[in-house]
Each structure stands twice: as structure tokens, then as C-alpha cells.
Design goal:
Structural class: alpha+beta
Bound molecules: zinc ion
Strand order of the largest sheet: 1-6-7
Helix content: 25-40%
Radius of gyration: 19 Å
Oligomer: single chain
Number of domains: 2
Length: about 190
């Protein structure tokens, strides 16, 4: 098994008042390092599918404002749709109770609720993790596939770096051709 994620996203303390919460999109993308807070999928190939989730759903907000940065999560459409207004405690300030509810993805504890098989498939590690896993539909194959594409892409780029130090123009040419085919293949995978 491998860790669910390598880094915990951290929201900056952004307090500027905006007209609508979507005005925070670029800051969120930056703080979440282009990843969905819930499944950790990277948005490189699917930016269009990334949305903004209210961690505490809007209907339960009392003291927090709809546009408050501290309550926003950069999320893929799959997780955002799956989470919707699920909030079992029904209270703004209580995130979870009796192993039901959510942990803020910017909390280190969130990452400890899950792990991954070597092939990238997400698994839960705790009872609360199990609850979130099914509510967020983290079992969906797309999370594993996007993880695999990213791994492949990183390997290809490692190979690309090695190409720089090869002297023989013939070998370099052939390897460059292979590199381009790999990149093309990875991009095709991400479109499926
Ligand atoms: Zn997601």
C-alpha cells in the first residue's frame, strides 16, 4: 500500500471580500496545487471538470459566509456532485460525529483516512474514512485511472530528461520519437 497523497493542501489566509465565491477559483487552484481536495486527482487533463465545493454546505451556513475562502474546496465534478449537501451533523461547526461526516481536506487528518493500493486505487483506513469513501464515491475507477496516467506521465518525463545526455544523434532521434508516442498515448488515455 502507498499513501493516499503526498501533500496536504493548505489554504492561505485570504480575507478579501469577493462578489461571488467563484472569484476565488484561481487562488483555490493554486492552494490545492491543481488537485481535487477530496480524491487528489490532478486537473491537468480535465480542468473543465473542476468546480468549487462549499465544505460546510451553503444551507447550513450561519456564521460563515458563502464567499468565505476558508470554507471552499477545489473539487472535481465527481466529488462535488457526490458530496452535494451531505452533512449528517446538520450543524455548521460540527464536521463529523459518530464516524459520519467530513474532515476538511486541508487538515492532515483527512489524508490519514485513506490509502492506495499499488495500482492507485483508493481504500479507506478508518470508519469515518469508510463513510466518506462511499459518500464521495472514491471507489470510482476514474480516480485510479487518473492516478495511473499521472504516474506514467512522470515516468515519461524522467526519460525525457535522460535523453538530454545521450550523445548519439541516431539513438536520440529514435528515443525522441518513442517519447512523443508515449506522450500522445498518455494524452489519449486522459481523454477517455
Ligand atoms: Zn475529486
Amino acid at each position: 500500500m502507498i499513501p493516499f497523497r503526498t501533500e496536504t493542501p493548505k489554504r492561505r489566509d485570504i480575507k478579501n471580500v469577493v462578489k461571488k465565491y467563484s472569484d476565488h477559483r484561481e487562488d483555490l487552484k493554486k492552494d490545492y496545487k491543481c488537485r481535487c481536495g477530496y480524491c487528489n486527482d490532478i486537473d491537468i487533463w480535465r480542468t473543465v471538470w473542476f468546480e468549487i465545493d462549499h465544505f460546510v454546505p451553503q444551507r447550513y451556513l450561519e456564521t460563515i459566509k458563502e464567499t468565505d475562502y476558508s470554507n471552499l474546496v477545489y473539487a472535481c465534478r465527481s466529488c462535488n456532485n457526490a458530496k452535494r449537501a451531505h452533512w449528517p451533523t446538520g450543524e455548521e461547526l460540527i464536521h463529523h460525529k459518530d464516524d459520519k461526516g467530513f474532515i476538511d481536506p486541508c487538515d492532515d487528518e483527512y489524508g490519514k483516512q485513506f490509502a492506495r493500493y499499488d495500482n492507485g486505487r483508493i481504500i479507506y483506513q478508518t470508519p469515518l474514512g469508510k463513510w466518506m469513501y462511499y459518500k464521495l464515491k472514491l471507489h470510482k475507477p476514474q480516480h485510479k485511472i487518473i492516478w495511473q496516467i499521472e504516474e506514467t506521465y512522470n515516468l515519461i518525463n524522467e526519460c525525457r530528461k535522460l535523453l538530454e545526455v545521450i550523445d548519439s544523434p541516431i539513438i536520440k532521434d529514435r528515443l525522441l520519437g518513442l517519447y512523443e508516442r508515449y506522450v500522445e498515448y498518455t494524452l489519449k488515455l486522459s481523454k477517455n
